[in-house]
Structure formats: structure tokens, C-alpha cells
Amino acid sequence: MKKLAIAVAAVALLAGACSANDQASTSPNTGSASAPAPAGGGATGTLTVFAAASLTESFNELGKEFEAAHPGVTVKFDYEGSSALVQKLNNGAKADVFASADQANMDKATQGGVIDGQPTVFATNKLAIAVAKGNPKGIKSFADLTKSDLTVVVCAQQVPCGSATKKVETATGVTLKPKSEETDVKQVLAKVQSGDADAGLVYVTDATSAADKVDKVDFPEASGAINNYPIAVVKDAPQLALAKEFTDFVLGPQGKAELTKIGFGPAQ
User: Fold this and answer.
1) Which value, to the nearest 10 degrees, does the dihedral of the CA atoms of residues 181, 194, 63, 117 take?
2) Residue 42 pLDDT class (50, 70, 90 cuts)
């Protein structure tokens, strides 16, 4: 009987070991299941941004930063006067993001049904007078731009910088007689840089970004014509996810820091 009991115990022990081995061989590998998933899977491709010409320097830098944070993404900018960009959008041009230099042109885009969601103001700007280095004509005020010996250029009235100029003229009672009215603020700046004009009404930010080529004359009346800069995702954006990310990027701390560098004011 003693030998029989020992034999039964041995059989039971052997069966338990076999069962444990079978369970081990059929259970999943828990170590590999807890391993982190591989990185990647973000959107790639080209993000197209329609932006007011006055945003050129700031947005170029923000584009580089955005690309660095999004491998495989290229940011392509179309810089023109806001009114021209709205016309392109309303005519069916494809873009992902639109940043305007004033609320009026953003409103036109919204009314045209080409904007997705609610635009958000991300910066403000105001006018300044760009003059040749050293200010050889001695321009000190907005009223000085009416002197007969000066060649002055401004933006066309449908362009935000032109609309702001008109507001200052109305508020001050000073009527300018410009040599030309340009389709965006960078063209005004270029004419001053080239010597084709003695003075041009541009934004503070444009004169600041070209400080090695022009001098800036501030005038107090500019504070009565502050421009809000709204940004929005374009309806049916080909890169919708990236468009929302870029918009948030501009509205975030990195965007604010870059815009502040050349004189953009905070959103109001």
C-alpha cells in the first residue's frame, strides 16, 4: 500500500508539470505586448498657407519651425495683398489656411463660403512711414507727406494698409497725393528701398524688418487705424489636420514670440 501511494503521488506530480508547460507554451508573450508602439503616423505632404504680404518675415520663420516639428511636411506660402488672396479663394483656389491683414477681407472670405469655422485674431499692426536711410527729406509727421517736393507711395484702398491710410486721412483731414497705389505693402516698401519714392506708408513691422535699408518714422495718428489680423482654416482644406495644427501653432506661444520680434501687437 505504501508503494502504491508513492506511485500515485508521482503520477499526479508529473501531470501538474505537464499542464504548467502546456499553459506556458500557449499563453501570449506579455513582454512584447507591453512594448511601446513605434513612432510615426502623423500627416505629411504640403500645407498651403495664403497670408498677407506683411506676414512674410514672421510666417517664413514659423514655417521653418513647423516643418522641424512635423517631419515630412512642407509649408508653402502665397504672400499677396489680402484682397487678392480672398479673390483667389472665392475663385476656387486651393489652400489650407488663410491669414488676413484685416477683418474686412476675412469677412469677405467668410461670406463667400470659403472659410471653415470661426476666424481668430492673432495679432495687430499699425502704419508707419518708411523713408530712405538717414531720412534726407526730414519727414517727421503724417502731414509732412503733403509737401510738394516729396514722392509718396501708398497701398491701394482695397488693400488693408490702404484702408488704414484712408482712415488716417479722414481722421486728420490730411489728403495725400501719392505717385502710385500699390497692390500690397511690400511693393510700397520696395519703391522706397529702390529710391523710386521718398516715403511710403507701410506697417511698423515692414519698416522694422527692413531696418537695414529704410528708416521708420512713427506718427501718433496711426493708433487710430489699428488692423486686426485674423487666421482661419479654409473650407475643404486638402490638409485639414495640418491646417488646424498650423493655426494653433500661430495662436500659441511660439507664434506670438515670432510675431512680437518685428513689432506686431497682441490680439485685441
Assistant:
1) -10
2) confident
